[in-house]
Amino acid sequence: MAISVDEIKKSYPLPLYNFRVEIGADAVAFSEVSGLSIHYETTTYKESQTASGVAGPRVMHMPAQRADVNVTLKKGLTRMTSLVNLYNWIKQITLNQIEKKDIFVRLCDEAGKPVISWKIINAFPTKLDGPSFDAKSNEAAVESMELRADAIIIEAA
């Protein structure tokens, strides 16, 4: 049975390289995003067992509070605007006036249309790393920023 183009588009995995990051109203060209993870801590409860005939306590694992959200963004360092914009954001911490922002990471199809979006809620920077310098390397200079956020929501387009 022949498969139609629409069926292939719906069932074929999307490539990782076609994504965009939006910080507030600005689209920023990052080369890597990691930490888009939703997970929960667990709590262990132990209770005695009297009715089942099994010796020892019964152990139950239950979900607890949502774990911290830590996202890392990496991008190639470009002239002037790159490091300055991220530095100005993290510099607000010294004034104790940090601006929390919602960030969208959008995985796009071949036409550049968003298919799945991760909304990182109330994110703020906790670390900004400049590039590691090596005179023997010809790799691009890469900066990275670590963010802490309240939650991640996944939205399908």
How does the SSE layout of this entry go?
Blueprint: H1 5-11, E1 19-23, E2 26-28, E3 32-34, E4 40-48, E5 57-66, E6 69-76, H2 81-91, E7 101-108, E8 114-129, E9 142-149, E10 151-156
Antiparallel strand pairs: 1-2, 1-7, 3-6, 4-5, 6-9, 7-8, 8-9, 8-10
Search tags:
157 residues, Pnp Oxidase, Chain A, 8-stranded antiparallel β-sheet, two-stranded antiparallel sheet
Description:
This protein is mostly beta strands and 157 residues long. It has a single domain, classed as Hcp1-like (Pnp Oxidase, Chain A), CATH 2.30.110.20. 11% of the residues lie in helices and 48% in strands. Strands 1, 2, 3, 6, 7, 8, 9 and 10 form an 8-stranded antiparallel sheet that branches. Strand 7 and strand 8 form a beta hairpin. It is extended. The chain starts with a helix and ends with a strand. The mean pLDDT is 87.
